Amino acid sequence: MNSSKKVSIREVGPRDGLQNESTWIDTEQKIEWINHLSRTGLPYIEVSSFVHPKWIPALADAEEVLARIDRVDGVTYAALVPNEKGLERALRAGVDEVAIFMSATETHNRKNINKSIADTLPVLKNVTRIAKQEGKSVRGYLSTVFGCPYEGTTEQTKLLQTVEALMTMGIDELSLGDTIGVATPNLVEAVVREVTKLVPTEKMALHLHDTKGMAIANIACGLRTGVRKFDSSVGGLGGCPYAPGAAGNVATEDLLYLLHGLGYETDVSLNEIMKAAAYIQEKLDKPLPSHNLQSFLAKEGSV
Amino acid sequence: MNSSKKVSIREVGPRDGLQNESTWIDTEQKIEWINHLSRTGLPYIEVSSFVHPKWIPALADAEEVLARIDRVDGVTYAALVPNEKGLERALRAGVDEVAIFMSATETHNRKNINKSIADTLPVLKNVTRIAKQEGKSVRGYLSTVFGCPYEGTTEQTKLLQTVEALMTMGIDELSLGDTIGVATPNLVEAVVREVTKLVPTEKMALHLHDTKGMAIANIACGLRTGVRKFDSSVGGLGGCPYAPGAAGNVATEDLLYLLHGLGYETDVSLNEIMKAAAYIQEKLDKPLPSHNLQSFLAKEGSV
């Protein structure tokens, strides 16, 4: 059992958040915002994606963003990479870490990557090999770990096979995604316990969407099960673009409130994160799902 | 330790929800809505308040609502009562259960009730005595149990003295309120364990506001600590009227999703609750904080 009180947050707002927002943020504002995030104490920022701009036009400026942000010592600047071509772009842009991705369920993998799981694994293996040769660390995202919008329940044997395949490639961290936010704490505990047999908790992260309001309870459960790395996005960015009130990633502010309340250390300033959340809320011109941001703004009028 | 899988929900939307909304719902719509709630499987609905209409004008129609709703067998229809005068009105209107209220912190009690805690207790004792004589059960709300907007931390010795005083009056159920939604699970666990020394869990409920997004995690903790009664409001009604995105009571839908996911039984239909939430959202003409409602509407377009 992991008794450490140190928790590490992976901020994914600039990538997983903005790629799902219907309003696009212009490059200057992204840079200003990421520079602010770099000074909040966050150890890790996923800055953009090198998926082809045809698929994620909101992040077509990945090269420019990475070239122009002020990098702060101690912060890892990562980006999403789908294949060797994306990796070449990411390496030229000077990412610190490469994030590869696939799904735990066959149908979601095909819909998202246009390949079977069997055909995806060699691509990711090759990306991992080259990235490691270039001295970059590699993070693996596994989506639909706790449920799938197409298949419903995620098949556990297949999930564990895929986890093993990713770990065998030599990835440095595995992020287990509740892509559609359907898990409740009992499922999180069961899955984390199984995955822990293949992945040490130091290499495991939870990536939980707050679609059904379960993310914070699931994180509290993850902490009890020994997980100490969590993905989140400032403001709770990344909700469904067609649903005004629907939640996205768990908000970094809400995660911090939980962690600090439970006595965990993060080195991240909740107050500075609130300011960064208020900034991006203003640019997106809509209330974001973050509970702490909204209650803070209600009380203070402004941050 | 309570190993029962049966959980009882106290729906407080028509009272604690609507009293805090800036838009008032007219009497016909309230009745239609409460009639719908009565057919969802909910065992308990707090229908209105007999606090003087000067203080809660949105619920000035308490008598008419209680007179005209269709009462369903097995559903307890309760109302908030501040004093003997309010009790007379509530008894005439035929409530099944009387809910009295006070705060665990002196300053909040004075601001909310305009009396010291010492001066409040005899009033509530008298209300409880008469209500019991009239054959009504009595529920006690204790606010600011986990934190106070004026005093910050809630003083534990004083809290436990007040709990004891309320139980000695002979109330049938004590609802522990996180009025400003500041608790994290460690605090909930610590307080519930202390209060359990004075109140059996069968007589204890948690009333958690989702202001900082902690309510569901705190309920999961309450369940582990043996609590099996929870207050909630359909749609997550009851946010601050001045803050568009700020959360109110934990949403009944989100509570149900957690409970059913964890294998608890409630006899409440999540689908019917969703319809009741969509109804009141439409009448209030703004997105409510409920995660499950928003994700359902995003997916289905309508309920």
UniProtKB/TrEMBL annotation, chains A, B:
GO terms for biological process: ketone body biosynthetic process; L-leucine catabolic process. GO terms for molecular function: hydroxymethylglutaryl-CoA lyase activity; metal ion binding. Keywords: Lyase, Metal-binding. Residues 7-274 form the Pyruvate carboxyltransferase domain. Gene3D superfamilies: Aldolase class I. Belongs to the HMG-CoA lyase family. This is Hydroxymethylglutaryl-CoA lyase. It comes from Halalkalibacterium halodurans (strain ATCC BAA-125 / DSM 18197 / FERM 7344 / JCM 9153 / C-125) (Bacillus halodurans).
